[in-house]
Write a structure and sequence with these properties.
The protein is mostly beta strands. The protein has helices at residues 10-29, 68-73, 101-104, 164-167, 257-260; strands at residues 32-44, 50-54, 59-67, 80-84, 91-96, 110-115, 118-137, 146-154, 157-163, 173-177, 186-193, 201-203, 206-215, 217-224, 227-228, 236-239, 243-250, 264-267, 277-281, 283-285, 291-296, 299-304. The chain is rod-shaped.
């Protein structure tokens, strides 16, 4: 029995051998080097009811070794790793870091180590509550005749969300409100962001601030004889005959007689029958810009002396 004739292409065989040797040399024999590369970190799977308060890193360092040309050609800016945090629990959590998959799957590059090789994370429960916003003027110096007042925010409170240990200590959020020293009398309205403690968010993050600029106001004690709202006033006897008022008004009008004369105490006596007697609540009339702070007494005894 004769053997089949086998044709061997020695040129192709020789070329394949040379390429194999070259590849072996490129990977194992050629000069190798080591380098450090920075790997950016991303996180996924954090439970909605938990928050990492300490220990998160933006990146870590990986030590690589491989052929010099290959190591130098590596684009380290694209190296990234994703960390699954779905297993987090309250307290201290240790998470082991892994090199990027592109390095793990490379046959030419060896990963020598990571620095750091793990994360130590402090985790707290998330807390949410609504607290008031407390605005205050940070520069209350205005012209001598002006006064800033009625400072308020809309809404009056915001919802804060963050680590339980921080949020439970926050009873209010202060808000500094600037004043233009050259302000004129009138209403002011603008928006301003609310500052929250670190790791705490607030909703809404911006509130509307309102306040007014008015003339400086003063207080004045005045005495008034009660007037009755009928024509035959002489038929009504009022006890006591004087009423003491404390009034707030623009300071520039505290000595203006025409303005002060508009402050009156009036009694509605139409319900008092002839020969009868009633206790009537005093009614105070004030000019524009004035505000009643107090009245003594608040009620008076009225006698109708007619028959």
């Amino acid at each position: 029995m004769t053997r089949p004739e086998i044709n061997i292409n020695w040129q192709i065989l020789a070329l394949s051998f040379v390429m194999a040797v070259g590849l072996w040399y490129a990977i194992t024999v050629r000069e190798r080097m080591e380098m450090q590369a920075e790997v950016s970190l991303t996180y996924r799977g954090i439970p909605d009811n938990l928050m990492v308060v300490d220990g998160l890193l933006k990146s870590y360092t990986v030590q690589l070794r491989g052929p010099r040309e290959l190591v130098r050609a590596l684009d380290t800016k694209t190296l990234s790793a994703s960390v699954d945090l779905s297993v987090l629990r309250r307290g201290t959590n240790v998470i082991t870091l892994s090199p990027p998959s592109v390095l793990v799957n490379s046959r030419a590059l060896d990963v020598m180590g990571l620095s750091p090789n793990r994360l130590t994370l402090e985790v707290e429960a998330v807390m949410e509550r609504t607290v008031p916003v407390e605005p205050r003027f940070n520069s209350p110096q205005l012209a001598q005749a002006l006064k800033a007042e009625n400072l308020r925010t809309i809404p009056a409170g915001v919802t804060i969300r963050g680590p339980e240990s921080v949020v439970k200590k926050v009873n209010s959020l202060s808000l500094e409100v600037p004043i233009d020293p050259q302000s004129e009398v009138g209403e002011r309205e603008f928006t301003r962001p609310v500052a929250a403690p670190p790791q705490v968010s607030c909703s809404p993050g911006v509130v509307q601030v309102r306040y007014s600029i008015s003339g400086i106001r003063g207080q004045l004690d005045v005495e008034r004889t009660p007037a009755v709202n009928v024509r035959n006033a002489q038929n009504y006897h009022v006890v006591p005959g004087k009423v003491q008022l404390r009034v707030e008004l623009p300071e520039t009008l505290t000595t203006n007689k025409a303005y002060l004369d508009k402050i009156r105490v009036v009694l509605d006596v139409q319900s008092v029958p002839p020969g009868g007697r009633r206790i009537i609540k005093a009614s105070v009339e004030l000019p524009e810009g004035a505000r009643l702070l107090g009245i003594t007494p608040t009620t008076l005894t009225v006698t109708n002396t007619s028959k």
